[in-house]
């Protein structure tokens, strides 16, 4: 009798595995026996993506939903990237309720313009992880730690995906996160977006007409007392740098700003107070680059007090990029504010078609054949063969990268067939440990003389990038070695 029941369960599992998500959810409610089999099907992580370029918003949403829900899944999170043609609020309602609301006058079903049309939908199920927890930047670190501690045995999450409002400068907040989180917490995202969010049954949907948030963070944390039959999910990230430093180290002498829009700088060589002609400096750098097309930035080394724990008087040191708008005989004009007299910087030039902006498989351990991870295959819940251990990936790429598919080819060429999706960003979020900058010698000496927090200050880091690509991969390690296929 027991053997017959087991055989029936195997048949039922094979059938349930082929159902779309909505039918699968209904089947899980039939009885306890069916529910148990459904839980077995959901023992493995799942990542699904879909893209529609349909000019009708309701039709586009239906197309992507039908695709991502065509197989069994219990979504823990959903990320929808909406083309500028569509109403963000209307798209949000459609994705949430799978129904067509009253569309406002700004959206037409017959609108067929090619520019920025479409919707990209990403959903995921990560057994063994609690998430995503959603927190706001106003008390971001406290919320992240409290949330993670409530579901896990630590206060540091496994990973965070961050979306920032395009009207807010997240430089200082990201510097705090980078300083406070251990190096193995993976952080990626888009710092200049428009977003709507909802989390849980009691959360408020974002209403940009009433208020706005600086950012939203999707936080993934390991659960306490995880069952033994659930494998390990890991996050791995790498990034490409799309800018190269060029020219001497300079120093800001005077700084004048117009709100948060522009800053006017007089500059000198670092260590000198003689004002230089900004236009001449930029012309010399352009000649050195043989007048190659691209965008010029300045990378400013900033030492600032903590914006969260100001009473501790600790300093954070980080690299901030500002786009160069103009250089004349007197001033260097850059986009943005926050530079102070005495800050040191270098010019950077975008390198969107060079080796510097290519993500390679060497940047992610699990894609390196010589790594301890390697590739392996395992039996999935329906008896089929799972692919590798990499079951999904996200790419956050600069909108200035004209050859994104070429630059990232080594990653998806080396990755087993698996859902991958990407978003174009104005400012990319990613922890780049390879580009840490050493402090100038005179500033190191000042820190040694001052004692306290300055002595322990680490080299400058950068979490907010320009002209770069950040690749985030999801990796699954099955619970039992006998699931591997030799």
Topology:
Layout lengths: L1 H15 L4 H7 L4 H10 L4 E7 L4 H12 L8 E6 L5 H10 L21 E7 L3 E8 L3 H12 L7 E7 L5 H10 L5 E8 L21 E8 L9 E9 L2 E16 L3 E8 L8 H11 L7 E10 L9 E13 L4 E4 L8 E7 L39 E9 L5 H4 L1 H6 L5 E6 L2 E3 L10 H10 L13 E2 L3 E9 L9
Helix pairs in contact: 1-3, 4-5
Please tell me about this protein's structure:
The chain is α+β, with helices and mostly antiparallel strands and 486 residues long. Helix 1 crosses helix 3 (32-41) and helix 4 (57-68) crosses helix 5. Helix 7 links the parallel strand 5 and strand 6. It is elongated. The chain has a six-stranded mixed β-sheet with strand order 4-7-5-6-17-18, covered by helices on one side. Residues 99-115, 201-205, 353-357, 369-388 and 434-457 have low confidence and may be disordered. Among the domains are: 1-41, no CATH class; 243-350 and 442-461; 356-432 and 468-483, no CATH class. It starts with a helix and ends in a 9-residue tail after the last strand. The chain contains eleven helices and 19 strands.
